[in-house]
Amino acid sequence: MIKVNFSADIDKNKINSILEEIKNDKMGGWMELPKKYDMGEFVRIKEAAKKINEDSEYLVCIGIGGSYLGHRAIIEALRPKSETEIIYAGNSLSKRELEWALEKLGDHDFSINVISKSGTTIEPAIAFEVFKKKLIEKYGAEEASKRIYATTDAKQGALHDEAVQNNYTKFVVPDNIGGRYSVLTAVGLLPMAVAGVDVDKLLEGAAEAMETAVEPAINYAWMRYALDTKKYDTEIFASFEPSTMYFNEWLKQLFGESEGKDKRGILPDSVIYSTDLHSMGQYIQDGRRNLFETIIDFPTDDLNKKIVAAVRIAHAEGEIPVLNINVPSFDEKGFGELTYFFELACAVSAKLIGVNPFDQPGVEIYKKELRKLLDQSL
Ligand code: PA5
Prior knowledge:
Layout lengths: L2 E2 L7 H13 L14 H17 L2 E5 L6 H10 L6 E5 L5 H11 L4 E6 L6 H18 L1 H6 L1 E5 L5 H9 L2 E4 L13 H10 L3 H14 L1 H16 L4 E6 L5 H15 L7 E6 L8 H6 L4 E7 L4 H16 L4 E5 L5 H22 L7 H16 L2
Parallel strand pairs: 2-3, 2-4, 4-5, 5-6, 7-8, 7-9, 9-10
Antiparallel strand pairs: 1-10
Helix pairs in contact: 1-14, 2-8, 3-8, 3-11, 9-14, 10-14, 11-14
Bound molecules: 5-phosphoarabinonic acid.
5-phosphoarabinonic acid binds next to loops.
């Protein structure tokens, strides 16, 4: 069970009405998801993962933002064992990255999981064209179609239409769940199952958190809100486990995209200790006093515990507010709990500062501008 080391002075009525609002929001589907999962889809995900493990040395996982970071975060953290290695693509327009991935694939057997809720995001759309071409060249159109797994909207969008036309195996991003809250849907579950993550245990952890993580998540959200009103406008997520670097990236996306709008929101940043004690450590200890630190406290060995203790003492001396989130286990169950805890805390936090946790109007602006530039160069 997730525990926090503080108890905020919460306005219970306000919180209850926020929780009600989130539950009734048209994008609030993630809130009940771990207990209301479509088990038919879950079985299909596991079957698809088994097939991919049998026929593919690589799975090219194409997606960006919420269609990418959540599953990468958990896969990198847990380092599970699998027959199939994941290659991530479509999260940049870098030709170098693309060429590197194509070279790594070489003549190995592979499949593609293309993930895009809208089906129109440019980076994954371009990467999909490139890897699909390679797949067709290697296997021919018919077999290639059997090796493409499309995770997208249930009813519409370019990717949906292509998947239907070509008979790709299709998984759904539910209408009522947005990108950065979608890691526990097929968006994250298929790549994680392929990579060897025990997805049953992950959902079990998340389902448990629906009961046990609500109170700590609310406390944490309220504490952030209280700190923000005292001009602590930067949050540093700190972990002492190097493999959680991508989990930090997911957190930055979750909070940054959910809260950073209408000229509001706490700026999320992250560190991995000890590594970053020798880079960001100086600033955190001694720079501007507008930051607070959220330690994600995983069970660890005795030596690493000494670093945790030393950092706590040093940061108390540096007058940094430190919030501690204690995670019960460094495994699928722990990450299931942690994922749900942060999703809930983030949605409540955004509501507390009065912004919509589920849209991303700023991201849409760059997408529109990029499309215009690409159209001009055609
Ligand atoms: O959290 C979000 O909604 C975004 O980060 C999206 O996931 C990201 O923009 C990718 O969108 P799509 O899945 O439509 O390609």
